[in-house]
Amino acid sequence: MKYSKKVIEHFRKPHNQGEIKNPDSVAVVGNPVCGDIMRLYIKVGKNKKGEEIIKDIKFETLGCGAAIATSSMITDLAKGKTLEEAYKITTKNVNEELEWLPPVKQHCSNLAAEGLHEALKKYFEKKKEKPKKKKVCKSAKSKKMTKKKS
Amino acid sequence: MPKKIIYLDNAATTPVDKKVLQKMLPYFSEKFGNAMSLHTMGEEAGDAVEEARENIAKILNCDVQEIFFTSGATESNNTAIKGVVKRYIQEFKGEIPHIITSAFEHHSVLDVFKSLERDKKAEVSFVAPKADGVIDVDDLKKEIKNNTILISIMYVNNEIGTIQPIKEIGDLVKEVNKKQRKSPLIFHTDAVQALNYFTCDVEYLGVDLMSLSAHKIYGPKGIGVLYKRKNLNIPPLMNGGGQERNFRPGTHSVPQIVGFGEAIKLVKKRLEKGEDKKMKEKRDYLIEKILKEIPDVYLNGSREKRSPNNIHFRFDSVEGESLLMKLDMEGIEVGTGSACSSASLQASHVLLALGLKQEQTHGSLRITLGKDTCKKDLDYFFSKLKKIVTDLRKISGNVLDEFKNK
Questions:
Q1: Is B187 helix (H, G, I), strand (E, B) or coil?
Q2: Per-residue confidence at B187, pLDDT binned at 50, 70, 90?
Q3: Of B65, B68, B247, B256, whose CB neighbour count within 10 A is largest?
Q4: What CATH number is given for A5-149 in this structure?
Q5: What is d(CA B261, CA B266) in angstroms, rounded to the nearest whole number?
Q6: Of A37, A65, A104, which has the smallest distance from its Cβ to B399's Cβ?
Q7: CA of A18, closest CA in chain B: separation in Å?
Q8: Across the interface, do B321 and A11 touch by the CB < 8 Å criterion?
Q9: Is residue A36 a contact partner of residue A62, using CB atoms and an 8 Å limit?
Q10: Which string of b and e fits B132-157 if b means at least 16 CB within 10 Å?
């Protein structure tokens, strides 16, 4: 089993490694039994067109060389992309960009794309909930108002 | 790139000693005869083979006729175990015997047992070691039945370096055989990791079959030995020419056999100089230092009943392969688990046999010293290890905590 130069590069000096304080979404994927676990943080911002983009992205990973390299690569691939574009990043993209992982290590690269998709899903869900909460708030306020009136 | 390589994976393999190599070289192109040929060149090769055999027999305290050259310990283990079972099935016309081994043997023993079980050629018991990585003789004793014909227990565990009570098991087997039995109980030991530091006197230990390999004792790869007690008749694994008294056909690999013979002579010399004691001091120095200065690290296997060359640690929140790769980048070569399974991604069966959970087996590191390892190398290794463990723990950001309450 031999890693490509690209994998070694990312393993040696991982990009965007660390924690984001007050992230817009965090996902944890993997499990302790298989030994590779990844935590991915994203911060969402807007581009000039007003579209939502991944403004910042960071990772923390416990795992093998491939797990760390794929974590690093996904942050490179996703950073600055619109959320829709980012959601389209696949395991295959990560694999290609890393000049292919050894066959026995392919499951690690699943982890990175899975982490990103999970973080985005969580973000979308949170957004969906927000307007609902606002409605609840409004009605609660109006109830309070009516109470006051009475 | 780092200039110096520090090799701390001597349980995986050792370099061929220069004296051994010098002894081997003439047998490639000059004295290249077939040891079975009757002419002068053949005789010369044959004599060299017999000289090597004598050197090995001296160390094992056995007759030269009890030493058989094989391609390595994997072949020796296969020949011994399958042979004992096959002979019983032949003798008792298809009846199936019971055989016992430990749960943390090398794969070349464990997988032979599993295949015999799968093929319904033997009923098999796997005895688990205690948490300190040592087999309890009483646990073995409990497994022995009337039709048990073989116990196979390794001398020193290849991963965690724990020493097994071979003499005590040998005594137990002798005791069992005093009683009337349908077929005698036979004792095999895979002594590959022991030959460098411990007595392999087969009379003292009471073993009937012993597997050895040259490349673990500064000899060449691809050559092994099976010691087989004289009165023990088992069929060969392969059929062919009449070499090794019909027990192991195939043209003698003369240079490698010569190399094994020379390497085993040098083992004795080193032990006479007290190499094992000096190595033990270095080993304990490094164990102390790691336990004292790196948090959340555990020594796998007994500290006392341990080979002088073996250090095996488990680190929390660090993955073994990452650790190995980072050390490699610094010019330090170590092992995680056993070298054979490093690429297989499977959790170590040895660590699982000690009762560790799957998730506890990933952050392991095997450091095995060699005859030329000096304290300075260990200090350099330690300084790099400490930094790398800190860095990797930073990268992992305590993600394991997410699973603590699950």
A1: strand
A2: very high
A3: B256
A4: 3.90.1010.10
A5: 9
A6: A37
A7: 7
A8: no
A9: yes
A10: bbbbebeebeeebeebbbbbbbbbbb
| Assigned superfamily of B6-15+274-396 | Aspartate Aminotransferase, domain 1 (3.90.1150.10)
Tokens at residue B197, please? 């530091």
What is the C-alpha to C-alpha distance for residues B388 and A15, in angstroms, rounded to an integer? 17
Lowest mean pLDDT, pick from A81-85, A126-130, B167-171, B330-334: A126-130
ipTM of the complex: 0.83
CATH number of B18-270: 3.40.640.10
3 state DSSP class of B154: coil
pLDDT category at A134 given cuts 50, 70, 90 is very low
CB contact under 8 A, A28 and B317: no
DSSP strand E in A71-136: where? Answer: none
Q: Which residue has the higher pLDDT, B50 or B406?
A: B50
User: The tokens of B204 are what?
Assistant: 């003292």
Q: Please give the pLDDT value at position B52.
A: 98
- Under a CB-based contact definition with an 8 Å cutoff, are residues B154 and B190 in contact? yes
| Interacting residues of A74 by C-beta distance below 8 A, sequence separation 6+ | A40, A57, A59, A89, A94, A112, A113, A115, A116
